[in-house]
Design goal:
Elements lengths: L1 E5 L5 H5 L5 H7 L9 H9 L2 E8 L2 E12 L2 E9 L8 H17 L3 E7 L3 H9 L3 E9 L5 E10 L6
Parallel strand pairs: 4-5
Antiparallel strand pairs: 1-2, 2-3, 3-4, 5-7, 6-7
Length: about 160
């Protein structure tokens, strides 16, 4: 059974082990340098809200937070799933939980998430969960080549009765 709880400092090492390559780290935290260190991750967490750890059978299987949480908009960031837990619905649970936290803790009307064009699994998941693209931003990949960061939103008001 999947559960979630607030991030604790002792979670840093486990979360830092999740990105298995430069590419995975770029999708998770583009400003970080591979391999991810606890200091790098802590810097991101210190600037964010609702850093949340996802647990299954006592093991940390995922992480996410908000990098913006004002004016009715919450932006989900730093979404990652442990390598051993991928393909089992963890990412779906993470995003649905963060949508709920945005609604209940921040009274958000809109939840946003961004995904790089090469992250096909992320793009397909976010579409399946009801996110729709609203902007594309040019970014530079690790090797300096151009990539597209696709910004998507989910309107909470559409699902409320």
């Amino acid at each position: 059974m999947l559960q979630y709880r607030p991030f604790l400092k002792q979670d840093l090492q486990a979360i830092c082990s999740f990105p298995q390559s430069e590419e995975e780290l770029f999708y998770f935290y583009p400003k970080a340098v591979y391999p991810l260190t606890p200091e790098q991750l802590q810097r991101a967490i210190d600037q964010r809200s609702d850093s949340t750890v996802f647990v299954q059978n006592g093991s940390i299987v995922g992480f996410a937070n908000f990098y913006h949480w004002e004016n009715g908009i919450c932006c989900i960031g730093n979404v990652i799933v442990a390598p051993f837990a991928r393909g089992r619905g963890v990412a779906k649970f993470i995003v649905e939980t963060m949508i709920s936290l945005a609604d209940h803790r921040h009274s958000a009307n809109t939840v946003q998430i961004s995904c790089f064009n090469q992250n096909i699994a992320g793009l397909l998941l976010y579409k399946k969960l009801g996110f729709t693209p609203f902007d594309i931003e040019e970014r530079k990949y690790i090797d300096g080549k151009r990539v597209a960061l696709i910004h998507m939103h989910y309107q909470l008001t559409k699902t409320r009765s």
